[in-house]
Amino acid sequence: MECVFGLVGKGFAIVAADTSAVNSILVHKSNEDKVMVLDSHKLLGASGEPGDRVQFTEYIQKNVHLYQFRNGIPLTTAATANFTRGELATALRKNPYSVNILLAGYDKGVGPSMYYIDYIATMHKIEKGAFGYGSYFCLSMMDRLYHPDMSIEEAIELIDKCIIEIRTRLVVAPPNFVIKIVDQDGAREYAWRESIKSPDVSMA
Amino acid sequence: MARYDRAITVFSPDGHLFQVEYALEAVRKGNAAVGVRGSDTVVLGVEKKSTPKLQDSRTVRKIVSLDTHIALACAGLKADARVLINRARIECQSHRLTVEDPVTVEYITRYIAGLQQKYTQSGGVRPFGLSTLIVGFDPYSEKPALYQTDPSGTFSAWKANATGRNSNSMREFLEKNYKETSGKETIKLAIRALLEVVESGGKNIEIAVMTHKDGLRQLEEAEIDEYVAEIEAEKAAAEAAKKGGGASTSASS
């Protein structure tokens, strides 16, 4: 089952997601990147219906870029979150998207922030959050071990502990995870946690 | 309810579309703009007409990005330009969304030219009063490109071109002095062409340089002044060499 989770630390935010692309009992691939780099300082981790996930996140990404070209400055994380929620809300009672989103970004002056946006357009600004069956384990781990202003090392330790919980306790646990980080220097991939190496190395 | 179906741009008896030609007049009254294509650099330059004292000149951007790898400068009605630029920016992102590829310079030029043409053959509208110079690097091939469009909707690729006020003089200069350049030489060629018709100085010229690696960069006033100084020095040296060469018959230039 798809897991996306993340937390806000001191001057940064982390979003981690599993990397399995699954259809019923078949695993298409184990290196599907579900955390999109929205722009220079934003990450969008998404889980849900694969078609909707790609369609919706790419649509958000292109509109974020359009805003930047039109206005010469990037959208803030808060504005992006509200725009994203608005799009989900507008589609909800016509042809809804089945996508859950964790949006993380870094804004000058504001610092790091994270938004929880679920498929029925609920939005919360949070310090830690998770989606999927994995959330039962991640949220408990984070409730116990998270504290504000964690360093990167402490945060990655916590993320790794969550991944271990998911691997040990979830019956159909995804084997591989990707971890991405966003701070004042930008949004980038931090690490992969692979327990099954895919034969083809090229990423999605 | 008023019906906007009467055509405004219609043929004259001798085959002219006068509205389009009048639009070209509007372009001729607009600020001078020049574009030069080098082997690894493309340069756009526009003349900055004297800014009113109370105006915040930073809000008047004459060279704009359409995408990370495409830039545009224009001459003519700036309000019309805003509309075209906005449509082009949307198309750049829309193209990326539907085919997962950035636009080529030719594609976006064809799109803008197509828009300009549409407004010469629709009811109730007038043509856009601007010509554009579009520069950029094609994705994957990394080849630099320079295109020009005009109010009639025609477009073509150029090695160097000028539009707007005194564009004929600038084009003559470019035809005489164009050669394959790269990097700083391309920038100097563009500035030299602009200086033919514009008062010399960094505060009267706006220059933007695009390379495949670094995207679009607007030059600072100080940088432009440096180039202008270099150009004037070269001009003075050439003058002196000519005078000195004239005195003796076998002077090599």
From TrEMBL, chain A:
It holds the Pfam family Proteasome. One of its GO terms (cellular component) is proteasome core complex. One of its GO terms (biological process) is proteasomal protein catabolic process. It is found in: Cytoplasm; Nucleus. Keywords: Cytoplasm, Nucleus, Proteasome. Transmembrane segments: none annotated. It comes from the Eukaryota. Coiled coil: none annotated. Belongs to the peptidase T1B family. Component of the proteasome, a multicatalytic proteinase complex which is characterized by its ability to cleave peptides with Arg, Phe, Tyr, Leu, and Glu adjacent to the leaving group at neutral or slightly basic pH. The proteasome has an ATP-dependent proteolytic activity. Non-catalytic component of the proteasome, a multicatalytic proteinase complex which is characterized by its ability to cleave peptides with Arg, Phe, Tyr, Leu, and Glu adjacent to the leaving group at neutral or slightly basic pH. The proteasome has an ATP-dependent proteolytic activity. The 26S proteasome consists of a 20S proteasome core and two 19S regulatory subunits. The 20S proteasome core is composed of 28 subunits that are arranged in four stacked rings, resulting in a barrel-shaped structure. The two end rings are each formed by seven alpha subunits, and the two central rings are each formed by seven beta subunits. The catalytic chamber with the active sites is on the inside of the barrel. This is Proteasome subunit beta. It comes from Rhynchospora pubera. The lineage of its organism: Eukaryota, Viridiplantae, Streptophyta, Embryophyta, Tracheophyta.
From TrEMBL, chain B:
One of its GO terms (biological process) is ubiquitin-dependent protein catabolic process. The keyword Cytoplasm applies. Keywords: Cytoplasm, Nucleus, Proteasome. It comes from the Eukaryota. InterPro entries: Ntn_hydrolases_N, Proteasome_alpha, Proteasome_alpha-type, Proteasome_asu_N, Proteasome_sua/b. Its main location: cytoplasm. Residues 4-26 form the Proteasome alpha-type subunits domain. It is found in: Cytoplasm; Nucleus. GO terms for cellular component: cytoplasm; nucleus; proteasome core complex, alpha-subunit complex. Pfam families: Proteasome (PF00227), Proteasome_A_N (PF10584). The 26S proteasome consists of a 20S proteasome core and two 19S regulatory subunits. The 20S proteasome core is composed of 28 subunits that are arranged in four stacked rings, resulting in a barrel-shaped structure. The two end rings are each formed by seven alpha subunits, and the two central rings are each formed by seven beta subunits. The catalytic chamber with the active sites is on the inside of the barrel. NCBIfam families: PRK03996.1 (NF003075). The proteasome is a multicatalytic proteinase complex which is characterized by its ability to cleave peptides with Arg, Phe, Tyr, Leu, and Glu adjacent to the leaving group at neutral or slightly basic pH. The proteasome has an ATP-dependent proteolytic activity. Belongs to the peptidase T1A family. PANTHER family: PROTEASOME SUBUNIT ALPHA/BETA. This is Proteasome subunit alpha type. It comes from Rhynchospora pubera. The lineage of its organism: Eukaryota, Viridiplantae, Streptophyta, Embryophyta, Tracheophyta.
